[in-house]
Amino acid sequence: MTAHADPAAPRKPRSGSPGAHTPETPRALPTRLRDSLTGLGFVAPFTLLFAAFLLWPMLAALWSSFTDRSLARSDSSFVGLANWQQLAGDPAVWQSLWVTVLFTLLSTPPLVVIALVMALLTNRVSGLGWFLRFSFFAPFLLPVAVVTLIWQWMYQPGFGLINAALARVGLSEVAWLTNENTVLLSVVITTVWWTVGFNFLLYLAALQGIPRQVHEAAALDGAGAWRRLFGITLPLLRRTTALVVMLQMVASLKLFDQAYLLTDGTGGPNYAARPIIGYIVDSGFTEMNIGYASAVSYLFFAVIIVAAIIQYRLFSRPGVES
Amino acid sequence: MRARQTHTPTRAPRIGRRGFLTAGIAAAGLGLAGCGSGAATSSGRARLRQWNLFTGGDGARLMEMHEAFREEHPEIQLEDTTFMWGDPFYTKFVMGAAGGRAFDIATVHLSRLRGLGTGTLISPVPRDLLAEHGITEDTVPTTVWDKCLVDGELYAIPLDTHLVVTYYNRRICERAGVLEGDGTLVETNGEEELIDLLTEVKEATGQYGIVMETTGAWRQFWSLYRQLGGEMTFDGELVIDDDKALRCLDFLRRVSEEGLAPRASDAPGTPANFQNEIAGLMFGGNWELPTLRDAGMDFGMRPFPAVFGDPLGQGDSHAFVLPYRRTPDREAENAAVAYAAWMLRNSLTWAGGGHTPAYLPVTGSEDYQELEPQAGYREAAENVQFDPQAWFSGSAAQLQSDANSVFQAVHTGATTPEVALDRFKSAAQRLIDTPPPV
Q1: Could you tell me if B166 and B281 are in contact, meaning their C-beta atoms sit under 8 angstroms apart?
Q2: Chain B hits for A76, Cβ within 8 Å
Q3: Low-confidence winner among A129-138, A146-155, B183-192 (lowest mean pLDDT)
Q4: Which of A12, A294, B25, B112 gives the lowest tally of CB atoms within 10 Å of its CB?
């Protein structure tokens, strides 16, 4: 101990340290430079990976869309706008794009509303709350292959769980995955069961962030449960709702795995459940036509950008007001 | 059939994205193979990299055969790599072959052979070398051998044939009184006899007579269409016999509409339905055999029934192919041919999976004749009906997928055979208009 200096003794300021009263001298610049170099050093690994695995593939795909690149050849040649012309006149592109959009329209509302309702209910429960939170979130942890395997059996005609239940209560069976009109709905139901837990968690976190005293004050003023729900809870959840809707729409537009697996890769009767990504896989990998598949991918990319802009416009205003 | 020949890549390509990926896949394959054998490559033995698409029971049987091969051939270092069949396998196959250094021998479905670049990605098999190992056109069924020939050159070594057959549940069929004295299913001839049989079995089960994969109706359709002698070609435009196609689709409509078969039964559901005994019969691929046997069912197998003609069934063949090489490698080629020939000669093990060995001395042997129920459909297997020829047809290719997507609505009653045929024709035309990828 004796060898150490008294900690209370005033320290001699180190030259160049920000706390020193030295005026802004040219010495400060190298420090700032060093800081930014250090910062760059930290982001460099990510930037490299980002460039190698996202930017470069995106540029390569854009280039591919103007070529006849095939999986099975090492060379390819420039074909100009041929892929894009073919795309414009290909009914399968527009039909599968519609499947994706329809899925998004059908799946987003229940995935938001059911998540909210579950969060509101769970938030009130004490004691068994952990069990409900776990139960509602657990399906989200399952891999898609497991989810589709379970639901493929549940949807079975004759001996499937759902049809057996329908038959028991005297209703007629539904050919869930084999009817053109119900196959996409079946994919929606499976998706809701599988992924609603994530939105539920976001809502639950937001609910727990609402101060208790706001509710208490309103209750003292005589506001009932419904009044408080619509007057306090929902308005305070507005930002979370905007976030959940945006994340959900992006997730729904990305529909592929569960639709592909539930229909054994066929896209369902008359392609009623083949989303545009399914068509990209069919043309790019099954038909090995990477050039054309790249063009379709870019069309889909444009659609997602447009959807994101519309959504940003719709939801950013209330956010600004609050 | 490849409509247009593409030129062979001659110049050595730069190491591009594809080369990089290929190297990565090959490295992964090496790593996996290394786990199995633990042997170093520098041991002076001939290295044989084999790619295959067999998982599940077939995969286990393949590994069993490979172990035996390794014991008998210490001079060959066999490194096998398994990919999931369908797109996962074929995308890697073409990319690996285009990269030029992926495998020394690989399995393919024979129906896909012409779509995978014969001459550009796949090399001819040296027939004289194969003959030295005892495999000639006399030891393989003609139908299958012919399918291995492209412009007179042999491009594949067929291991087996596999096809859609009729399974029958002995307990139910006995109750329905449709078994012969020796416990085999009665033979039917023509549509009405089959309908009568299905009706009798339906009465015995109280539910259905037969189950078949309605979401995979192509197999049944093509079997029936070939029984009518129907042809299908894709040379610039689709040539199909509408009347014959409609008769086949109408048969599918009829069995479902008359309640002889379920309106909907998908890939996992069909064997389950058969095991659950909602029907006494099933149309299904011979590869369901091990599953049903493991389930302890008492069942037999017969060829796909004669509905419109001979009892022909749709099917395919697993075959070995050699990659195209820029620089010939005699040593690897010798090892590959020796391996393929050995696999054919020892394919009795392979028959356990329900596939019929292509090597005639095996199927002609007493050991095979005693295999039950495999021997029950041996003749049909030798006359297997391959898919029509196009780069987009064959197992796990787009034409089957299109047909399955469209035809299942005939079973459910959602569309008429006429509408389904129109939709199939426009789907086929779209594929014809797509430039071939190889």
Answers
A1: yes
A2: none
A3: A129-138
A4: A12
Instruction: Say whether both B427 and B332 belong to one domain.
Output: no
Q: The tokens 């430039």 sit on which residue?
A: B435
Which pLDDT score, from 0 to 100, does residue A26 have?
53
Place of tokens 């859609």: B164
Cα gap A177→A162, rounded to integer Å: 12
φ/ψ region of B400 (left if φ > 0, alpha if ψ in -120 to 50, else beta) reads alpha
In which domain, by residue range, is B128 found? 17-158+318-347
Look-up of token digits 């309103």? A218
**Reported ipTM:** 0.77
| Distances in whole angstroms, Cα of residue B430 to Cα of each of A312, B399, B406 | 38, 10, 14
Alpha helices of chain A — where are they, by DSSP H? 28-50, 56-64, 82-88, 91-124, 129-137, 144-154, 161-168, 183-208, 212-220, 225-228, 234-236, 238-253, 257-262, 276-281, 290-321
Residues of chain B with pLDDT under 70: 1-43, 101
Q: At what angle do helices A144-154 and A161-168 cross, to 10 degrees?
A: 30
The more confident residue out of A37 and B19 is A37
Residues B284 and B414 in one domain: yes
Residues in a beta bridge with B165: B284, B303
Question: Once rounded to an integer, what is the mean pLDDT over residues A7-32?
Answer: 53
Check B91 against A288: CB less than 8 A apart.
yes
Tokens of A316: 């950013």
Number of structural domains (chain B) is 2
Cβ pairs A/B, distance under 8 A: 126
Residues of A in contact with B19 (CB under 8 A): 74
Element (H, E) at B401: helix B398-412
Determine the structural domain holding residue A230 and report its residue range. Answer: 91-321
